Amino acid sequence: QVLLALCCFASGQLRTALQLLYRARYLLLIVCGEDHPQMALLDGSIGLVLHAALEPELALKFLSNALCLTSRHHGLLSLRTAHCHNLLARVYESKGEFHSALQHEKEAYTIFRNQ
């Protein structure tokens, strides 16, 4: 379902991509629970699609959850955590919240520099 959702997203079918990603998230939630590393990947993907669909508030919710899960499972200094910070910065920047965007970009830069 996730790969099909990515194909739908690439072809511009945002609604279908979101439906597939939400379904995959629901199934993972039932099988593995909220605290699973794969949930971070799904939440990040949902956040990206929501950002493309011009839903920044929902995108921030999912991307923030992805950041929490990623830092918990991969560590605060992992490249995946830096990527989550970068995605959050992009959404904050598109909303015009430049202070929050700059904070997340600084976090991402610090992690990238230390790798």
TrEMBL record:
It comes from the Eukaryota. GO terms for molecular function: mRNA binding. GO terms for biological process: intracellular distribution of mitochondria. One of its GO terms (cellular component) is cytoplasm. Pfam families: TPR_12. PANTHER family: CLUSTERED MITOCHONDRIA PROTEIN HOMOLOG, EUKARYOTIC TRANSLATION INITIATION FACTOR 3 SUBUNIT EIF-3. This is Uncharacterized protein.
